[in-house]
Write a structure and sequence with these properties.
By secondary structure, the protein is α/β, with parallel strands linked by helices. 38% of the residues lie in helices and 17% in strands. It contains eleven helices and twelve strands. The strands form two sheets. Strands 1, 2, 3, 4, 5, 8, 9, 10, 11 and 12 form a ten-stranded mixed β-sheet that branches. The radius of gyration is 20 Å and the shape is globular. The mean pLDDT is 92.
């Protein structure tokens, strides 16, 4: 048969398949989310996230060293305080748990790049992402506290801050606060397109951050909306974001691609707790191959346009990349 075009020619040899591969990944793009709790000698497994743990500050070094040994050099810290109040004061306290975590990480692993999740849901007694006015979050009052939170994290050692609250104007408020305090070179990775998603359930268990009433649909996005996602991303660009993020990752590849195509900023995506838990529990039941599914999910995010991949599988993916099984 006379065929001038035979796509299978480029699939005939494993070396050739790698040579013409369109999507390539590197360990330097991986970010591991890590939970830090108050107390001593704590390494506590998260029930809904098999294989993931909460660490006290004095036990952080073992995990950070494990990550560095695997080639994962970027960590995002989440703090879980012992005390919560309506104003979420632990989020911006100089001696808050996540601030302690940053100082310890800089001390024991100075080569690690540290990212601070800037939000208040872990710190408020009501579990919402800001201060309340009645039954709703007061957007503009919350901006002041988010800016204080970002500044306190940077002062404690964070190399980057990542606001995840979805308040209007928070990127601009944080940028002004950092610039006024001579941290103009600290980048902001904005959770620009963050949906009110059912994929977050295990995280709320891990961070003890479920809202005490209602939900977060008045500030996190409706997952039916595409144009709104672009609008949110463009607003963050205008306010000074350095990196944009889409969250969750797995079900939102279309928006990763669209935001990437319409902006000139690096793109992050967050493979969230629900994605991780689904893989782990289904693999434990023997229904899927965990490693292959994990790799396929990662490739789909990078193929969609991800430059930075935030994932609880960071160490495992780094190993697969090293072995040439992905990348």
């Amino acid at each position: 048969m006379e065929l001038s075009s035979r796509p299978r020619r480029l699939r005939s040899n494993p070396n050739l398949r790698k040579m013409v591969r369109e999507t390539r990944m590197d360990k330097s793009s991986l970010v591991y989310p890590m939970f830090v709790v108050e107390g001593r000698n704590i390494k506590e497994e998260i029930p809904s996230m098999y294989g993931q743990y909460r660490y006290s500050v004095d036990r952080m070094e073992e995990k950070l060293t494990e990550l560095m040994d695997a080639g994962v050099t970027n960590v995002m810290l989440f703090g879980i305080p012992a005390h919560k109040d309506e104003a979420g004061s632990g989020a911006y306290a100089q001696d808050g748990i996540v601030q302690q975590g940053f100082r310890k990480a800089k001390e024991v692993c100075p080569q690690m790049y540290l990212i601070g999740d800037v939000c208040m849901c872990e710190y408020t007694s009501h579990g919402h992402c800001g201060v309340l006015r009645g039954q709703d979050v007061d957007n503009d009052q919350t901006l002041k506290l988010l800016a204080k939170t970002a500044l306190s994290q940077v002062q404690a050692g964070a190399d980057m801050v990542a606001p995840s609250d979805m308040m209007d104007g928070r990127v601009g408020a944080i940028r002004r606060m950092l610039d006024e305090n001579h941290y103009e070179n600290i980048p902001i990775m904005a959770y620009s397109v963050k949906f009110a998603s059912s994929f977050y359930g295990p995280f709320r268990d891990a961070a003890d951050s479920a809202p005490a009433f209602g939900d977060r649909k008045t500030y996190q996005m409706d997952y039916h909306n595409r144009r709104e996602a672009i609008k949110e991303a463009m607003l963050d660009v205008a306010e000074g974001a350095d990196i944009l993020m889409v969250k969750p990752a797995m079900a939102y590849g279309d928006l990763i691609r669209e935001v990437k195509d319409q902006t000139n900023l690096p793109m992050a995506s967050y493979s969230v707790s629900g994605e991780y838990a689904m893989v782990k529990t289904t693999a434990a039941a023997g229904f899927i191959d965990e490693k292959r599914i994990m790799c396929e999910m990662a490739v789909s995010a990078y193929r969609a346009g991800t430059d930075i991949y935030i994932t609880y599988f960071a160490k495992e993916l780094a190993k697969c990349m090293e072995e040439g099984k992905i990348g």
